[in-house]
């Protein structure tokens, strides 16, 4: 498995569940692949996600490039690295380029990926001859129609 290029992924969505199965989904905008099988997410302000991971470490993350409308879903188990942990400052530094001084990282969620699958917008599934260029043009019409 290769490491996906996340350059055009604006957000990813972290899904967690409490020990009694209560679901929670939270958007994340600061994330990176540490290795091919380890996705790290900066926890900035998600107390429910943290609580759920402490109770049930199984998570699902989905990220989609808004222009191509293609992405990935990753499932795995998360551990929480906090400021009290020995390597926190060193590992937090890996996020500096993304942070640009805007946020303070509360914890780092380290997800050991157990499965990966591609995801695509329904257009590609229902109209299989749609090219990526057509997908990008459609997304631009949708997302840029009110800008300018």
Structural topology:
Elements: E1 12-17, E2 23-28, E3 31-35, E4 38-43, H1 47-55, E5 58-65, E6 70-81, H2 88-92, H3 96-99, E7 107-120, H4 122-126, H5 132-144
Antiparallel strand pairs: 1-2, 1-5, 3-4, 4-7, 5-6, 6-7
Brief summary of the model shown:
The protein is α+β, with helices and mostly antiparallel strands.
Architecture overview:
- The protein has 148 residues and is of the alpha+beta class.
- It has a single domain, classed as Pnp Oxidase, Chain A (Roll).
- Helices cover 24% and strands 39% of the residues.
- The chain has five helices and seven strands, in the order ββββαββααβαα.
- A seven-stranded antiparallel sheet has the order 2-1-5-6-7-4-3.
- Strand 3 (31-35) and strand 4 form a beta hairpin.
- The protein starts with 11 loop residues before the first strand and ends with a helix.
- The model has no long low-confidence stretch (mean pLDDT 89).
Low confidence ranges: none
Total helices: the number is 5
Distance between termini? 40 Å
The number of E-state strands comes to 7
User: What level of helicity do the residues show?
Assistant: 10-25%
Q: What is the class in the CATH system?
A: Mainly Beta
Q: Spatial order of the strands in the main sheet?
A: 2-1-5-6-7-4-3
Global Rg: 17 Å
CATH topology value? Pnp Oxidase, Chain A
Which architecture would the CATH scheme give at its second level?
A: Roll
Overall, the morphology is globular
The proportion of strand residues reads 35-45%
Q: Tell me, rounded to a whole number, the average pLDDT.
A: 89
What is the total number of structural domains? 1
């Amino acid at each position: 498995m290769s490491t996906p290029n996340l350059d055009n992924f604006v957000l990813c969505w972290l899904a967690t569940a409490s020990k009694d199965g209560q679901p929670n989904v939270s958007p994340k905008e600061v994330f990176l692949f540490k290795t091919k099988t380890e996705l790290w997410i900066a926890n900035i302000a998600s107390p429910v996600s943290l609580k759920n991971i402490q109770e049930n470490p199984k998570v699902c993350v989905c990220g989609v490039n808004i222009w191509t409308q293609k992405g990935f879903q990753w499932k795995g188990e998360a551990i929480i690295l906090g400021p009290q942990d020995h390597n926190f400052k060193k590992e937090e530094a890996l996020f500096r380029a993304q942070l640009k001084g805007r946020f303070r990282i509360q914890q780092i969620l380290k997800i050991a990926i157990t499965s990966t699958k591609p995801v695509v917008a329904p257009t590609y599934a229902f109209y299989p001859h749609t090219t990526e260029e057509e997908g990008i043009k459609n997304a631009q019409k949708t997302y840029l129609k009110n800008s300018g």
